[in-house]
Amino acid sequence: MQMTMNNTAHHMKLGLFVRPVGHHVASWRHPDSHADAGVNFQRFVEMAQTAERGRFDMMFSADTQSAWTTHPDGLHRMHYVAWIEPFTQMAALAGFTRNIGLVCTASTTYEEPFALARKFASLDIVSEGRAGWNLITSGNETEAQNFGRVAHPPKAERYRRAREFAEVVIGLWNSWDEDAFVRDRASGVFFDPDKMHVLDHHGKYFDVRGPLNVPRSPQGQPVLVQAGASDDGMELAAETAEVVFAAQSRLEGGKAFYAGVKGRMAKYGRNPDHLKILPGLAVTVGRTEAEAKEKYARMQDLIHPDVGLGLLSRRIGFDLSGYPLDGPLPELPKNDVVASRADVVVEMAKRENLTIRQLYQRFAGARGHLEVVGTPAQIADTMQLWFDEHAADGFNVILPYFPGGLNDFVDGVIPELQRRGLFRTEYESATLRGNLGLPVPETLHGRVPELEAAS
Ligand SMILES: Cc1cc2nc3c(=O)[nH]c(=O)nc-3n(C[C@H](O)[C@H](O)[C@H](O)COP(=O)(O)O)c2cc1C
């Protein structure tokens, strides 16, 4: 394990948002991207190794279990439509990396807790303590049609199920004490029965006997990440999450969200430092501001209107086809599918008086996240401001295309953050939990964890 003299208390945490071709919808049309990267595992390896060279805390893979990522009219122009499933990606990347955390998204609406707890505990073993689960309740309505439903259950219902789901998963991750498996050949005792805990959960949504057929994992339990920003989402995060991926495009909104989630933790007996809030940060890096703007404009010009309109329609839960592209956004009916993220976009359109075309151009790149186009120093200024103002503990970095966007960030922005003493120069720990400065959770059975704890 590498130890350094870094003052980690004042360090940002950084995730790399994984979209193999790039986050930008038009990234596959960019001459320097790899259009086949979604199904070319070698490209994932290069990305992970570059991120590790940049000392990122984690790779973060969002997910949707549906190919219908946009309106049907624009679908044949989308690169998001087919790529290697995140769990398979991360398990395979474990063998090509040493320190970087491996976080996959999995839905509490369409998974089952036993199978999910088992997979993540196994990923934690395979990666020697680098697994994280991004808990989501599912944003893409078409996912429902792949799981025997016409539509998602209502959001409040999804969150009730999510809460019980998380409780069951955590319970299962506590099935075994660390020293349960004695494997004593002489006596013939494989495990100590007093150190096995049968969950026997009976709730509204799940009946799960347990125990898990995977032992306690290297981090005690995989790191629990969450993405969901409504009141219900914030409450669940305050109760259970260790990292929150947020979508906030303005400092004031970011500060309110940060205070809102951390402020709720006391009632669950939790220390606010034990949850790291990472807003998405979409960046285009240039050696000069003019160069960055030119790179940005070049990418925006590649967005086909069918794609921009389709994505925007899906995000706001309202079909905009037929509305004039150079006219304003119409008044929208209330809808709860992706409410918190729709609000960010609609608010942006109103605030800046944007036409539908201007809005989809803005949205299709950054998807409602904070966006900075500039030099490494300008990007670091924004990051530092959000960090100092308690709007962020770090960022989930969203790059327009790979590999160029990531190289620009690792070679330009990371050294700038390091010069300012805002980011590590070496990993502090071999585990994701250790690098994030998160403690090993206490076990549910009154035993003090003996694993490495960062704080
Ligand atoms: C920052 C952020 C990231 C999200 N990532 C995903 C994702 O990868 N896959 C998915 O199906 N839903 C994703 N969601 C959607 C949530 O699962 C949720 O269904 C939706 O946001 C509605 O809940 P909310 O209003 O609490 O945010 C994300 C939401 C947010 C805010």
Description of the structure:
With 455 residues, the protein is an alpha/beta fold. The chain has one domain (8-288, 369-436): TIM Barrel, CATH 3.20.20.30. 36% of the residues lie in helices and 12% in strands. Strands 1-2-3-4-7-8-9-11 form an 8-stranded parallel β-barrel, surrounded by 8 helices. Strand 5 and strand 6 form a beta hairpin. Helix 6 (231-240) packs across helix 7 and helix 9 crosses helix 11. The two termini are 16 Å apart. The model is unreliable at 1-6 (pLDDT under 50). Flavin mononucleotide binds next to strand 3, helix 6, strand 8 and helix 10. Flavin mononucleotide binds at residues 62-64, 105, 107, 136-140, 155, 227-230, 232-233, 245-247, 338-341.
What are the secondary-structure elements, in order, as H or E? EHEHHEHEHEEEHEHEHHHHEHEHH
The domain tally reads 1
Taken as a percent bin, the fraction of beta residues is 5-15%
Q: Under the CATH scheme, which class?
A: Alpha Beta
Radius of gyration: 22 Å
Strand order of the largest sheet: 1-2-3-4-7-8-9-11
Question: What's the architecture in CATH terms?
Answer: Alpha-Beta Barrel
* C-alpha geometry: globular
Query: What composes the largest sheet?
Result: 8 strands, parallel, barrel
The averaged pLDDT comes out at 92
Terminal CA distance reads: 16 Å
**Ligand identities:** flavin mononucleotide
Helix-residue proportion: 25-40%
DSSP helical segment count = 14
Number-wise, the strands total 11
